[in-house]
Design brief:
alpha/beta; 2 domains; six-stranded mixed sheet; 12 helices
Length: about 375
C-alpha cells in the first residue's frame, strides 16, 4: 500500500471513530445548544490535529513542527481515552436496558445516559492530565535482582543500568535526556545498556538533543542496540552518530569484558525486524554468540524486542535485556501487547534464559503513561537461580 493511500485510510477510520463518539455523547448531554456546537468543533479540531501531529516531524519549520506535534499527539491521547470510555458507556447502557427489560421494573437509563455524556469527557480529560504527569516526570529507578546459577563470585553484585525507548523527538528534548543521564550516572553502574528506540527523527533534527548521551559513564562502557524506530529514522546515520557519542553499538556481535578477573560476554543484536529494512541488519542471536568463550559464567544479550528470546535461549545466553513494549504505555493497549510479544514487562524466564523487559524510559506518541510507569532499570547479578 502506498503511503498516501495508507494515510487516507487512517484519516477515514479516525473520522468514523470521531463521528461515533460525537453521535453517542453530544445529543445525550444535558447542555444548551451552544455548548453542543462547541463539542462538535472540538471533535472536528481533533480529527484535524491528530494526523498533523503524527506527520509533524516532516515539517522542518520550527517551532511550528513541535507545536503541531504537541497539539496533535495530546489530542490523540485524549481521544483514545474518550473512545474507550464511550465504548464502555455504551456497554453499560446496553446492560441497563437489558436488566430493565428482564426485570420489567425499568431502569434509569435516560438519567444515566445524560450523566455519563458529561462524565465521560471529564474523566477522559482527567486521565489525560494524569497520564501527562506520569509521562513527563523523570523516570523512577527500578531495582531488579537476577539470580544466576554458577555465577562467578567476582560477578556477584555486578550492576547493569538499562534505559530503553527514550524516543527523543518532537516532545522529548535535551532537558529530558539530561535528567535521564544524570540519574543513570548517579547509580554508578558497572555497565550501561541502551536497548533501542532512542530516537524518532533524523540526525540533523535531533543531534543537539541526543548529545547528553555522550555523558553516560560506566567502568565497562555504554552499549547500544538498534530498535525499530532507528530504522524508521535512518539506522546507518544513527549508528554512526551513536558511535561518535561514545556508545558501543553491537550489531549481531559481542565483546568480552573482564570484571575483577571474571569474564562476561556482552552481546547485542539488531532489531528483530531490522532485516526488513536492510538485509545486512538481519537479527541473529546465534551470530552474536559465535566465538564467545565457553567458560564465561555470564552471557548478556541486548535485543530490542522480547521476540528475540527463543533464539537467544538456543544460543546459550544467560540474560536478555529488551524494551519495545512500553508495558502498553496506557490503557487499554497493555492488553494487546501480548498478541505480538511473549513478554510485556518485568523479569521472566524461558528455559535457562532470564528475560527482562523494560517498560521504557520515555514514551512514544501521546505524552501519556497510565498504569505502565516508565523506568530506569538497575539490574544486579546475584548468585543463585
Amino acid at each position: 500500500m502506498r503511503p498516501s493511500a495508507f494515510f487516507v485510510r487512517v484519516m477515514a477510520i479516525g473520522l468514523l471513530m470521531h463521528l461515533y463518539v460525537g453521535i453517542r455523547l453530544i445529543p445525550a448531554a444535558p447542555v444548551d445548544g451552544a455548548l453542543k456546537w462547541l463539542a462538535v468543533i472540538a471533535l472536528a479540531a481533533s480529527v484535524t490535529l491528530i494526523p498533523l501531529g503524527m506527520a509533524a516531524r516532516m515539517i522542518s519549520r520550527q517551532p511550528l513542527s513541535d507545536l503541531l506535534a504537541w497539539a496533535g499527539l495530546s489530542a490523540m491521547g485524549f481521544f483514545s481515552s474518550l473512545l474507550v470510555l464511550t465504548v464502555l458507556r455504551d456497554i453499560a447502557l446496553t446492560a441497563l436496558a437489558i436488566a430493565g427489560w428482564v426485570s420489567g421494573a425499568g431502569t434509569p437509563v435516560r438519567s444515566f445516559a445524560e450523566f455519563t455524556a458529561l462524565g465521560v469527557p471529564a474523566l477522559a480529560l482527567l486521565l489525560s492530565l494524569l497520564g501527562l504527569y506520569f509521562a513527563r516526570r523523570r523516570a523512577p529507578v527500578k531495582t531488579v535482582d537476577v539470580p544466576v546459577a554458577g555465577l562467578d563470585a567476582a560477578l556477584d553484585g555486578f550492576t547493569i543500568v538499562q534505559v530503553s525507548d527514550i524516543h527523543i523527538g518532537p516532545t522529548i528534548k535535551r532537558g529530558y535526556v539530561e535528567k535521564i543521564v544524570a540519574t543513570v550516572n548517579a547509580l554508578k553502574p558497572d555497565l550501561i545498556a541502551v536497548t533501542g528506540d532512542a530516537v524518532d527523527g533524523s540526525v540533523p533534527q535531533l543531534q543537539e538533543h541526543t548529545q547528553p548521551l555522550a555523558d553516560l559513564a560506566a567502568p565497562h562502557g555504554t552499549f547500544f542496540v538498534t530498535g525499530n524506530h532507528e530504522y524508521y529514522s535512518g539506522a546507518d546515520p544513527w549508528i554512526s552518530e551513536f558511535r561518535r557519542l561514545g556508545l558501543t553499538v553491537l550489531m549481531n556481535e559481542h565483546v568480552v569484558i573482564d570484571h575483577r578477573g571474571a569474564q562476561a560476554v556482552i552481546a547485542g543484536v539488531t532489531d528483530y525486524g531490522g532485516g526488513h529494512f536492510d538485509p545486512r541488519h538481519q537479527s541473529d542471536p546465534a551470530k552474536a554468540a559465535k566465538g564467545a568463550p565457553g567458560d564465561a559464567s555470564f552471557r548478556l544479550l541486548l535485543a530490542h524486542q522480547p521476540r528475540s528470546a527463543p533464539e537467544a535461549s538456543k544460543a546459550g545466553f544467560t540474560l536478555q535485556l529488551s524494551g519495545h513494549t512500553h508495558g502498553g504505555q496506557f490503557l487499554p493497549w497493555m492488553f494487546f501487547v501480548r498478541m505480538q510479544q511473549p513478554f510485556v514487562h518485568g523479569l521472566a524466564k524461558l528455559g535457562d534464559l532470564w528475560v527482562y523487559t523494560s517498560r521504557g524510559t520515555g514514551y512514544w506518541g501521546p505524552p501519556i503513561r497510565l498504569f505502565a510507569p516508565s523506568e530506569i532499570t538497575r539490574l544486579r547479578l546475584v548468585q543463585g537461580g
